[in-house]
């Protein structure tokens, strides 16, 4: 009897514990999403402006060569056209623009290379040996983290505001130029001092020996323009809007000013992320609410079951002890005495059961809520996987939502408040359940009770 | 001039079983003096237990008066009856009816819970009563560790707890062997002599009944016969068999050696 009571009370404890745990994990998840989204804000405000017009033929390198299946150059040359730096000021004056970052990417050290393709045909391409990345070394832009400086400095230092006549090489370039930190490289007749080495490796899809690796030299934009003979020219302008909602507006204005330029935004990506976020959150919330509904139904059942168990146990007790009740009445116990006696016993019984229930609940809450509640871990799990994998979220935010999954399963231990509530519930239900049996006991007619054996 | 402690006037109790009504007590008239030891005898179904239940305010008469210690209790509501039971009546049952989870002393203390507030006072009185029934030192024993005779002694002590005006005993010897049977009867008789306790005992055992002062024969809900018992003579300190002088507590007559 006590065990049955204890079990139903254990259910009562486990279910809220399970709900609580799931709610907590959703919260963690939401926080993770919000962090990820806010961290991505800067990236999502990016508008990339390039010159897509084919009026000027590419002078250096050829991105189209890449489609031959032999070589993809490190990102430059796809467009091949340059824009005059003067557009930067025009873009800067657009409302909602916080940063405009012009960069120049040019291939240098061009040598013709001949390849033999299928069927013995030979192809000759102009292949650049390294890429110059000219970046604006403007203090405000660097401070705002807008300048695409090399990120993985393995030796020396990164470029700084006002640097001129210096370069940061890739590891491969140090081999190509045969230099170390402090040494000099000669580019088109100009000497640059090497101040740092970055570890960014190439991303060539078709690696054909060492040459396939990206060799990128970072230098001041002005230096790059001078050394490549492209004074005042830039290849890409990265425009940052003040927030993601302004992006499309800013992009439209740029397009309006310079219809010949290609203007691309991260809008579609933002949309995808938002859609995923919203739909996943909605799924989670509906899962949580359905869990709650189920849990409350189960709690209601447990409450009813507990009261019924107390009721029947006490009815049984009263029946079993009819003679005792008769004796007590014969000895001069009032109806109230008898009633309170049995009420007290019922409450005591369910109090003991409540303690047993808490003991079972503390140990078995995770198992019980796992058994009794719908499995909510699925949406969490898939979410964690998605974000962790970085498909939608940048790598730095990947870990956070994933952590929520672990808490969803393990944090279902009942809190002290919950235990107190359970004890209170036990007492109330005990009183409720024993009310009728105790009343019946008190109404027992002693003469009849005496005959009862 | 002795005082009437219990008096019934045309006391009737009818049970209704469906459409039939069965009269268990029919216009029964009875008087019990203070300090009397009365046995009510009769075959089964004669209404002995009904009478005792009605006398003990456990059952209400359908008709008639029941005057207990000067108060007509026949029409009293339950809210007042329990106090009558507690203060005026001591019950002894055939099956002892001790609470198994309480020890002897606690069982004796039970009726005092509503009358004596101080726990230590209750305890002292209970121990004194246990001593009176010959169970000193057994107060902390649970009923299952006591013999049947000892259990009934505890019940007798419990019946005396609130110094009742009358003790009602329902077949107190019915569940006892011969030896214990006489022990209990003698205990009741001695209480009657020493303390002047009024005892009304229902029994179908004529041997037990003969040890009382007055025997009433109940038949079909009426008292049909009345005769004196041995106790009557004993009270006069005279052997009922040979007429020689005896002491009230003698178990056997010193001259004729018959069991008293």
Describe this structure in words.
The complex is a heterodimer of chains A (453) and B (260). By secondary structure, chain A is an alpha+beta fold. Chain A is 53% helix and 17% strand. Chain A has 13 helices and 14 strands. The longest helix of chain A is centred in the middle third of the chain and has 54 residues. Chain A is rod-shaped. By secondary structure, chain B is of the alpha/beta class. Chain B contains 8 helices and 10 strands. Chain B has a 6-stranded mixed β-sheet. The model of chain B has no long low-confidence stretch (mean pLDDT 89). Chains A and B meet through helix 8 and helix 13 of A and helix 2 of B.
Uncertain residue segments of chain B: none
Beta content of chain B: 25-35%
Which outline of chain A best applies? rod-shaped
Which secondary-structure class do the elements of chain A indicate? alpha+beta
Task: List how many beta strands of chain B DSSP finds.
Answer: 10
- Mean of all residue-level pLDDT scores of chain A: 73
**Number of helix segments of chain A?**
13
Question: What overall geometry of chain B do the principal axes of the alpha carbons give?
Answer: globular
Radius of gyration of chain B: 18 Å
The name of the CATH topology of chain B is Rossmann fold
Mean pLDDT rating of chain B: 89
Fraction of residues in helix of chain A: 40-55%
Strand segment tally of chain A: 14
């Amino acid at each position: 009897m006590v065990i049955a009571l204890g079990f139903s009370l254990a259910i009562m404890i486990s279910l809220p514990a399970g709900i609580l745990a799931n709610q907590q994990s959703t919260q963690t998840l939401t926080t993770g999403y919000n962090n990820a989204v806010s961290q991505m804000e800067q990236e999502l405000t990016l508008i990339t402006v390039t010159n897509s017009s084919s009026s000027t033929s590419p002078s250096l390198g050829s991105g189209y060569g890449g489609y031959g299946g032999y070589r993809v150059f490190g990102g430059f040359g796809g467009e091949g056209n340059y824009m005059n730096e003067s557009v930067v000021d025009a873009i800067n004056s657009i409302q909602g623009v916080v940063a405009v970052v012009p960069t120049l990417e040019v291939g240098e050290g061009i040598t013709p290379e001949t390849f033999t393709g299928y069927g013995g045909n030979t192809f000759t391409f102009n292949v650049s040996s390294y890429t110059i990345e000219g970046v604006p070394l403007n203090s405000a832009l660097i401070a705002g983290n807008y300048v695409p400086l090399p990120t993985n400095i393995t030796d020396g230092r990164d470029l700084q505001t006002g640097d001129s006549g210096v370069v940061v090489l890739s590891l491969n370039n140090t081999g190509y130029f045969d230099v170390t930190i402090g040494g000099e490289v000669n580019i088109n007749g100009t000497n640059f001092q090497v101040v740092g080495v970055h570890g960014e490796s190439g991303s060539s899809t078709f690696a054909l020996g060492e040459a396939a690796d990206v060799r990128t030299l970072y230098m001041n934009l002005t230096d790059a323009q001078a050394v490549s003979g492209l004074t005042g020219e830039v290849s890409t302008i990265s425009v940052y809007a003040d927030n993601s909602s302004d992006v499309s507006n800013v992009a439209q204005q740029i397009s309006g000013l310079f219809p010949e330029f290609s203007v691309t935004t991260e809008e579609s990506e933002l949309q995808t992320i938002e859609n995923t976020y919203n739909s996943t959150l909605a799924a989670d919330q509906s899962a949580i609410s359905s869990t709650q509904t189920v849990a409350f139904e189960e709690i209601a059942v447990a409450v009813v079951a507990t009261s019924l168990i107390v009721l029947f146990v006490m009815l049984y007790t009263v029946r079993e002890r009819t003679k005792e009740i008769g004796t007590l009445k014969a000895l001069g116990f009032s109806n109230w005495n008898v009633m309170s006696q049995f009420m007290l016993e019922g409450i005591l019984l369910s109090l003991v059961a409540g303690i047993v229930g808490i003991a079972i609940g503390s140990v078995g809450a995770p198992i019980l809520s796992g058994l009794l509640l719908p499995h909510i871990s699925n949406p969490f799990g898939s979410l964690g996987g998605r974000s962790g994998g970085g498909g939608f979220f940048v790598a730095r935010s990947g870990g956070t939502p994933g952590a929520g999954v672990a808490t969803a399963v393990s944090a279902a231990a009942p809190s002290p408040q919950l235990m107190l509530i359970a004890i209170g519930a036990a007492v109330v239900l005990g009183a409720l359940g024993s009310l009728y049996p105790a009343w019946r006991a008190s109404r027992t007619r002693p003469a009849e009770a005496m005959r009862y054996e | 001039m002795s005082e009437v402690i219990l008096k019934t006037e045309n006391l009737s109790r009818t049970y209704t079983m469906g459409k039939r009504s069965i009269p268990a007590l029919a216009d029964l008239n009875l008087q019990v003096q203070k300090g009397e030891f009365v046995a009510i005898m009769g075959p089964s179904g004669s209404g002995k237990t009904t009478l005792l239940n009605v006398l003990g305010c456990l059952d209400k008469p359908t008709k008639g008066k029941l005057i207990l210690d000067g108060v007509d209790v026949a029409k009293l509501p339950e809210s007042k009856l329990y106090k009558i039971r507690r203060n005026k009546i001591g019950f002894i049952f055939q099956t002892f009816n001790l609470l198994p989870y309480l020890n002897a002393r606690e069982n004796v203390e039970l009726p005092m819970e509503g009358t004596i507030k101080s726990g230590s006072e209750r305890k002292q009185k209970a121990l004194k009563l246990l001593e009176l029934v010959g169970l000193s030192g057994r107060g902390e024993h649970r009923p299952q560790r006591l013999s049947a005779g000892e259990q009934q002694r505890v019940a007798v002590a419990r019946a005396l707890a609130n110094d009742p005006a009358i003790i009602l005993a329902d077949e107190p010897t019915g569940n006892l062997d011969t030896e214990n049977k006489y022990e209990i009867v003698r205990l009741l008789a001695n209480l009657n002599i020493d303390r002047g306790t009024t005892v009304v005992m229902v029994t179908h055992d004529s041997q037990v009944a003969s040890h009382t002062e007055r025997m009433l024969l109940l038949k079909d809900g009426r008292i049909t016969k009345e005769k004196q018992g041995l106790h009557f003579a004993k009270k006069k300190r005279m052997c009922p068999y040979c007429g020689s002088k005896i002491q009230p507590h003698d178990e056997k007559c010193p001259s004729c050696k018959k069991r008293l």
